[in-house]
Amino acid sequence: MRLSLPLAALAATLLSLPALAADPKPLRIGVLNDQSGIYADMAGPGSVIAAKMAVEDFGGSVLGRPIEIIAGDHQNKPDVGSAIVTRWIDEDGVDVIADIPTSSVLLAVQEIGRTKNKLVLASTGGSSDFTGKACAPTGIHWTYDTYALAAGTGASLAKDGPWFFVTADYAFGTALERDTAKAVVAGGGKVVGSVKHPQGTADFSSFLLQGQGSGAKLIAFANAGSDTVNAIKQANEFGIPQSGIKLAGLYLHITDIHAIGLQTAQGLILTQGFYWDLNDETRAWSKRFYEKHKAMPTMGQAGTYSAILHYLKAVKAAGTTDTATVAAQMKATPVDDFFSHGGRIREDGRMVHDLYLLQVKTPAEQKYPWDYLKLIRTIPGDEAFRPLAEGGCPLVRQQAAK
């Protein structure tokens, strides 16, 4: 059967047009973290939930495109994380990588973002080298870093030593010990030694005995997740605090305190970029998160939400997903949400915001579930984070040269 002329013309026109009726290509955000290992509680599924909440609160789409969150488990291995991110970008059309605990993975992903021109929004990975010697125009560090933890906990307890470090033997632990030791010495304290342990250590007895026999008055744990939980629990089982030696968890989360228990954790000092019970805004968001996850959010999970929401606002304002344009828009716009009011992103990629020095409550002080911390003081962002000129970021030198 031959079509009439008008119908044939219409059919030809429709065939020549782009597939306007096809679904628009989604904007994909990849949340990369440890989904089932030692950092699963502080990041893991909770960070994926926080990312999805950011998308929901933003409205679910931007520039006419639906927003999708996909998750990957890097198993705390740089090669695994790098393979996932490369596949996401090359095959799955992922535009942004977020969260990324384990600093060795984070620094590897930073290089992929630099090479492939994709934004990396770090929340739970902590090495201050991310915005220092390894900085990239595509990398933004959101929640905390090892310098800030040192400026909080390390500086506050500097003279409570001499100090001994029990340190995780990878990039994060090395950076955390380095930055904290500098803060301790600058604050008039003394470091008498350190020992490194493998990631995922079950038995800390030999490391704790070295600290106990070093002459230290404070043993500091430069590790994270279940490593920190196990180390603090075992130190108490061995009677180390009862012998007069203080303990300091340099990188603790609300989920770690929950796992340790107030009876054991009471009195510990910690530095946080966020605490769920700070004010009405943090409580309102955290209670929504709790309904979905059945645990209060860590600072990293809240930071993942904030970073993604700020990114989506920048995409909308810029009218494009072009990496350089969106990064410039993010840096030009103050961060304004429950996580931070007036936070700003510097040229080295550091998001500067207030941090909080807190102390774990005693069981008698607890009033309701997850009521674990009390505020000692707010640390202004410019005091908490490393001065721009001291990080060694090549981007800062290039900007100064211009």
From TrEMBL:
Signal peptide: 1-21
All residue ranges annotated as the Leucine-binding protein domain in the record: 26-361
Pfam family for this entry, one: Peripla_BP_6
Keyword Ribosomal protein tagged: no
Domain of life, per lineage: Bacteria
Keywords tagged on the record: Amino-acid transport, Signal, Transport
UniProt KW Signal keyword: yes
InterPro entries from the UniProt entry: BCAA_transport (IPR051010), Leu-bd (IPR028081), Peripla_BP_I (IPR028082)
Family matches, as Gene3D superfamilies: 3.40.50.2300
PANTHER family, sorted: LEUCINE-SPECIFIC-BINDING PROTEIN, PERIPLASMIC BINDING PROTEIN OF ABC TRANSPORTER FOR NATURAL AMINO ACIDS
Family: Belongs to the leucine-binding protein family.
Name by which UniProt lists this protein: ABC transporter substrate-binding protein
Organism: Xanthobacter aminoxidans
